[in-house]
Amino acid sequence: MLEYEDPAAWGPEPVRPNWQLRLRFVATVVCFPVLCAVGLAILLAFIAVALLTEVIAMFSARYERGFDEVMDSALTRIAGLGSWFVTWPELRHEGDTEYYRARVDTTVAHWTALASAPPEPKKAKPPVECEISVSVYRGVGGRYVAEVALAQGWELRPTDVRKEVRLWWTAASHVDQVHPS
Questions:
Q1: Nearest-CA neighbor of 10 among 175, 168, 169, 166?
Q2: What CA–CA distance (Å, rounded) separates 23 from 19?
Q3: Nearest in space to 24 (alpha carbons), one of 87, 80, 93
Q4: Buried b / exposed e along 63-101 (16+ C-beta atoms within 10 A)
Q5: Beta strands across the sheet bearing 129-133
Q6: Residue 128's CB: how many other CB atoms inside 10 A?
Q7: Which run of H or E residues covers position 36?
Q8: Residue 129 is inside which H or E element, if any?
Q9: What is the pTM of this model?
Q10: Calpha distance 121→23 (Å, rounded)
């Protein structure tokens, strides 16, 4: 049995010490604006370079793909630098299981409402896959997310429960009748 198929092992994360949370929160308040400024500067630099090299991109799909990969990699790494940030709700509700239960219920209900909405013409199709971050379910564990999601019609996807729980909307698996042309 694959690990993602056994949510019984997905317990809550251990409660972090209060002093550590406060220290991380203060560091977050200081570092977040700097990280935003650096990310914005890098994004603007990439846009400037892209505008200057648009002629090359018109003739070379390889250059354009490479440029997109470099830009995506750089911006993903900048966003990943904030993985240790602590938000105000995390600081206030660390160890509060009822808060995290409500948070999981709200998040799964939101994704269920989006996925079960009927498709509208000339608009994007409803999402059939979602990822629920560990910051949402930290106090109750991934098992609670799996229980709530399975009860609402989701199925589990391969996932790393230390980072996120990935879900697939089961109703999307049903193939619609295709009308022959």
A1: 166
A2: 6
A3: 87
A4: ebeebeeebeeeeeebeeeeeebbeeebbebbeeeebbe
A5: 129-133, 164-169, 154-156
A6: 15
A7: helix 18-52
A8: strand 129-133
A9: 0.72
A10: 50
**Angle subtended by helix axes 142-151 and 97-116, to nearest 10:** 40
pLDDT level of residue 174 (50, 70, 90 thresholds) = low
- d(C-alpha 168, C-alpha 154), whole Å: 6
The better pLDDT of the pair 132, 75 is held by: 132
Cα 78 to its chain centre, rounded Å, is 15
Instruction: Determine the 3-state secondary structure of 29 from DSSP.
Output: helix
pLDDT digits (tens, 9 = 90+) for 143-160: 999 899 999 999 988 888
Helix (H) or strand (E) holding 133: strand 129-133
How do residues 30-45 score in pLDDT, each as one tens digit? 999 998 899 899 989 9
Is the distance from CB of 144 to CB of 151 less than 8 angstroms? Answer: no
Could you give the percent of the chain with pLDDT greater than 90? 31
